[in-house]
Amino acid sequence: MIFLSQSMRNLGINKDDVLRVWEFCKKNSSGSKVAGSVIPSVLKFDDLEISGKILEEVNWPKGNPHYCIHVINPLIAVYCRKGLLGKAEAIINNAQSRGLNPDVRTWYLMATGYLQNDQTEKAMEAMKKSICETGIGWIPLRNVWPCF
Q1: What is each CA distance from 124 to 68, 110, 120, 127, in whole angstroms?
Q2: b/e string for 72-91 if b means 16 or more Cβ within 10 A?
Q3: d(Cα 14, Cα 18) in Å, to the nearest integer?
Q4: 38, 120, 127, 133: which could form a disulfide with 111 (CB 3.0–4.6 Å)?
């Protein structure tokens, strides 16, 4: 099913078709496996509301292997790009409450969002967390260098 939803997105299938696949997967107990592909597919149509609802609909218990940071990073990226930093922070807080730790990409996305919204101190803190996640050797893109 994951391949199907990714293929649908790449073939130019419309949002209603993607949502039909999502509804089918939810009813057949594979929603948590497919959510990571469906959310970016819906975001392609710039529908933050439905993407957020999909994230909420999946009841991921702690330790579920299908609930990884890669599922939420696309939504965080769009929230940050649109200046909806509070929503991005809420997703991260929810993930952390379920035992999921943000990765380097998550903190990089947040740093970029903070920087674009003139929140330099928060951007610096997010970059510090990002560097701590990766250790030595990772170099951030130039758009977040002003944090340092």
Answers
A1: 25, 10, 6, 5
A2: bbbbbbbbbeeebbebbbeb
A3: 7
A4: 127
Find, among 35, 49, 33, the residue nearest to 84 by Cα.
49
Residue spans per domain, the chain = 1-59, 69-148
Question: Using one digit for the tens of pLDDT, what is the confidence trace for 71-122?
Answer: 889 999 999 999 999 999 999 998 888 888 888 889 989 999 999 999 999 9
Neighbouring CB atoms inside 10 A of 129's CB total 18
- Contact call for residues 129 and 107 (beta carbons, < 8 A): yes
